[in-house]
Structures are given as structure tokens and as C-alpha cells.
Write a structure and sequence with these properties.
Structural class: alpha/beta
Strand content: 5-15%
Distance between the termini: 40 Å
Number of strands: 7
CATH class: Alpha Beta
CATH architecture: 3-Layer(aba) Sandwich
Largest sheet: 7 strands, parallel
Radius of gyration: 17 Å
Shape: globular
CATH topology: Rossmann fold
Strand order of the largest sheet: 3-2-1-4-5-6-7
Length: 250
């Protein structure tokens, strides 16, 4: 776990309303767009990612969220650099798709360890500074697969379902301190991960979406930043889809 951007190069808050934000999986796709939006709003942001790749105007730290010691060290460094923690976005995740009959225990465990346990490790490491904040926010990035399942995605769906139970438990535990905890459920989003599906499978999925298109990272990140805002302070324990209507009624 090494910083790839010195703390002094991280974004500086634009006045007294600037929040202290950590985003896991902050170098690509939804995570990167989320980092950029918080920075643009005048917040100080730390991006945690396996690569630790530089992110403009944010402090970038290398951290494998599947490793509890690495997460603890990275979160400690992030909180020290930020001077506290107001917002934690749990976004890091992986896929290792295969039909259940062919899926190895190693692939199942790896996805659970990163997506679910990584979320647990991240929250556990950040929970005390979040409680001390007067505007603590936790946003988990789950998936519509948590509700609908997905062929070849038993491990992924299980990991993302687990985040919902974790988040709602945490929402109850932290409510007295005014920290809110919410979950978003992206559907098919135009990211590297979303584009990795075979074209036929991708098109079939789009055809099943009432709005007949994939979502954008901007649409997802906009919801994340809203849930982190003062305007959303009465929303907690919510599970909100961003999926073009594919999971409506579930």
C-alpha cells in the first residue's frame, strides 16, 4: 500500500462545506466518475484501488480491498491525510463469471472476498471517523444482480446481495449518530465491465431494459453524490436501482 499522489497534491476543499471523501475502486468506471464529481463539488477525495493509479486532483492509494490489513492501513492513511472522514463510497468489485456447474470454489470465494468482505473491511476501518462526522454518509454500490440474479453470476449476485443486508444493518446501528447508509443498484452501465459481455448477451440485456439502453457512469455517480448531500440526510437504509427500469416491481 503506497501513495501514488502526495497528500499535498490532493484536492483542497473549496471553503467550509468541503467534505472528506474516500472512494474504493476509484480509478475506473463508476468509481472514477464519482471521484471526479466530488472533486468538482469542492470535496477532498482519496481514491483506493488495487493499482493505485493516479487520479487528477485526488490522493490515490494502492489497496487490495480483499486484504483486511491493507484496507486498515490504507484507510488510516486516508483519514490522516483528509483530517477525518465524512463520506465512504464502497464501489470496488470484481467479476469471475461461470455457470454454477463449472464455477470453482476459488472463483466463488474470490468474488465474495473482494465484493462483500471488502465492503465490510472498508466500513469497519472507517466507521469511527464516520461516527465522529456530523454528516457521515456510506454508499454501497451493489447491483441489480442482487435482486434478479444472473446466469453465470452466482458468486457476483451473492456478493452484491450481501451488501444490502450489511448496509441495512449498518443503517440501523448508525442512525442515532445521524450517519446514513444507502445502497445503489446499477444495472447495465457503459463501463469496461459492462462492455466485457459478449455483444449478443449485451444486446439481449438492453432489449430487456424498458428504457432500451445502457446507463452511463454520470447517471450512477449523480445518485451517489446526491445520497452524500445534506439534501439526502433523511434517506437511510434505502436500496435504489439505477437500471432503466429492469428491476421494477421486484
Amino acid at each position: 500500500m503506497n501513495p501514488t499522489t502526495p497528500p499535498e497534491a490532493a484536492a483542497k476543499p473549496a471553503g467550509p462545506t468541503g467534505r472528506k471523501v474516500v472512494v474504493t475502486g476509484g480509478t475506473r468506471g463508476i468509481g472514477r466518475e464519482t471521484v471526479d464529481r466530488f472533486v468538482a463539488m469542492g470535496d477532498t477525495v482519496v481514491s483506493l484501488s488495487t493499482s493505485g493509479a493516479p487520479v487528477d486532483n485526488a490522493l490515490s492509494l494502492a489497496c487490495d480491498v480483499a486484504d483486511p490489513q491493507a484496507v486498515e492501513q490504507a484507510m488510516k492513511q486516508a483519514v490522516e491525510a483528509l483530517g477525518g472522514l465524512d463520506v465512504l463510497v464502497v464501489n470496488a468489485g470484481i467479476v469471475r463469471d461461470n455457470l454454477m456447474a463449472r464455477m470453482s470454489a476459488e472463483d466463488f470465494s474470490a468474488v465474495i472476498q473482494t465484493n462483500l468482505m471488502g465492503g465490510f473491511y472498508s466500513v469497519k476501518a472507517g466507521i469511527r471517523p464516520l461516527i465522529r462526522s456530523s454528516r457521515g454518509r456510506v454508499i454501497f454500490c451493489s447491483s441489480t444482480a442482487a435482486l434478479l440474479g444472473g446466469i453465470g453470476q452466482g458468486n457476483y449476485a451473492a456478493s452484491k446481495s450481501g451488501l444490502i443486508g450489511l448496509a441495512r444493518t449498518l443503517a440501523r446501528e448508525l442512525a442515532r449518530g445521524s450517519t446514513t447508509v444507502n445502497v445503489i443498484l446499477p444495472g447495465l452501465i457503459d463501463t469496461d465491465m459492462g462492455r466485457d459481455f459478449p455483444e449478443k448477451v449485451r444486446q439481449e440485456f438492453i432489449d430487456s431494459v424498458p428504457l432500451r439502453r445502457a446507463g452511463t457512469v454520470t447517471e450512477v455517480a449523480s445518485l451517489i453524490t446526491y445520497l452524500a448531500s445534506d439534501e439526502a440526510r433523511y434517506i437511510t437504509g434505502a436500496v435504489i436501482p439505477v437500471d432503466g427500469g429492469v428491476s421494477m416491481g421486484v
